[in-house]
Design brief:
Strand content: 5-15%
CATH class of the domain at 272-465: Mainly Alpha
Protein name: Nitrate reductase subunit beta
Distance between the termini: 36 Å
GO molecular function: 4 iron, 4 sulfur cluster binding; electron transfer activity; metal ion binding; nitrate reductase activity
Subcellular location: Cell envelope
CATH topology of the domain at 272-465: nitrate reductase domain fold
Organism: Streptomyces brasiliensis
Radius of gyration: 24 Å
CATH superfamily of the domain at 272-465: nitrate reductase domain like
Number of helices: 22
Cofactor: [4Fe-4S] cluster; [3Fe-4S] cluster
Structural class: alpha+beta
Largest sheet: 5 strands, mixed
CATH architecture of the domain at 272-465: Orthogonal Bundle
Length: about 525
Amino acid sequence: MPRGEATIGRVMAQVAMVMNLDKCIGCHTCSVTCKQTWTNRTGVEYAWFNNVETKPGVGYPRRYEDQEQWKGGWMLDKRGRLVLRSGGRVKRLLSLFSNPDLPSIEDYYEPVTYDYDNLVSAPAGQDVPVARPRSVLTGKPTAVTWGANWEDGLGGAPEHAGGDPNLTGEWAEKVRFEFEQTFLFHLPRLCEHCLNPACVSACPSGAMYKRVEDGIVLVDQNRCRGWRMCVTACPYKKVYVNHATGKAEKCTFCFPRIEAGQPTVCSETCVGRLRYLGLLLYDADRVGEAAATPDERDLLDAQRDVFLDPNDPEVLAAARESGIPEDWLDAARRSPVYALVSRYRVALPLHPEYRTLPMVWYVPPLSPVLDAVDAAGGNQDDPDHVFAAVTRLRIPLEYLAELFTAGDTDVVAGVLMKLTALRSFMRARALGETDDETVLEAVGLTARDAEDLHRLLAVAKYADRYAVPAAHKEDAAALTALENRCPVESSGEQRPAEGRRVMLGLPTLRRRAPESPAGGRP
C-alpha cells in the first residue's frame, strides 16, 4: 500500500491465512485431520486446535468471546498504553496457583470413551448390551451433555444460541431462532498467530514464543511450567493444557509442513477450497503503535497499514536488508492473502478489538442477494437495488460487524457490496450478456479486478490458494549468532527473553526472541 513519506522500519515476513466463509459447508474435515495429526494422544482429548463453530452460537469453549469474564487480549489503560486485560505482573504472580479466569472442563466438555468391552463380554441374555460413556478424566460413568460441535447446524439454538456474546444491542432483536427466520454460517477457527500475541507476553516462564522467521507462535515444552496464564490471556482460547503432562499446547500452524513449502493439514484437506495461505511483509516497528490505536473501529485500518506492498521497490530493498530471501519475496508477491487482505480488502480479522492483530482473516459470508432483490420487488440489473438489498440480508450486518470490524457496519457493507458486484458481473458474463462495468465501478473494481477475484474466490485452484516458500536451512547457523528482537517490541527498555528457532530437519536452535509492546514477559 502507498506509505507516502513514512519511513519503512524493520521488514519481517509472516505466514498468514484467509478463509472464505461463503464456501464453508461445516463438514469438519479440517478439524478431524488436525485432530488426527496433532491431538490424537492422551491428555488432549478435549483439545481441538482447529474447530468449526456454527454462528450464532456460544462457541468453544463456551462464550470464549466474553472478555469481561475471561480477561483475554489487550486493552488501553487510562494513559493510552497497551496492557494485558488479565492484569500486570503482580496480579499474574499472585494468581500463579489459583487463576480464577480460566474456562472449566464444563466450558469445554468432559472427554469420554465408551465401555466397548461390554459389547463383546456381556453374557447371553434377552437384553442388547450397550457401550455406556465413561469419563476419560475420572474413568467413571458420565453423561454427554456438551461438546466442541454441540451447536452444529444450529442444533439446540433456541436454548443456547441466545448466549452468543456477539448478540448485543437493540439490533439483536432481529436475530430469531425460528424456522424460516433464522440464519447460520460456519466459522472455522484456529490459533491466530497474532502479530501482538497476548499469550506470549503473559507467559511467566517464557515458554510461549513467536518465531522470528515466519511469525508462527509456538510453545517450548521444555520451558513450560503449566502456569496457564497463556490460556487466560488468549482471547480466542486457542491454548490448551495437556492434563497428562500439565503443559500448554496449541496450533502449530503445521510448521514442519510450512518449512517444507506445503500448506497446513487443515488447508490441504479442506473440501470447500476455502483456505488461502501466503506471506505478508510487515513493518515490525509499527506493530505496537497499531495495536495501541485509540478507537477500536480504526484497528482494522491500523493493522492494514502495518502490511507492506511486496511490489514496492523500497519495501523490497528494506526486506533484502533484513535478510528475507528472494524466493520469499517472490512468494509475498504471489500471496493470495495479501491480495484478499490489502489489495482488494475483502478479508477481515476476527475481533480486531482484542488488539492482538490476528493473522487469520475471513471473507464474510454473503446471503443470497438476488433473492432479496426479488423479494423487495427490485430489479436485479439495477446496482442501486442490488446494493440496497445488502442491508436487508438474512445475516444482519450488525452481527458480522461485531465479529469482524469492532461493530463498524459500513466496512462490512462495503465488503459485501464488492462481493455482490463481483457475483453480478461474473453471472452476466457467464450468461453471455454484454459486460456492464457499472456495478463494478460503484465499488471501485475493474473488470480485471473482478476476473482476479473470481479466480481466487470461485475457481480457487491449488496453486492460487497457496504461496508458501520453503525454509532456508542454510541460514540456520548464521541465525544462531544473531540477537534479533521480536517483531512486537516495547518502545521503552528492551528485556529480551530467550526463545528458539525451529528449522526443518535441524536440531533446536536457541536465539534471542521478542517481547511485546506492553512490556513483555516477566
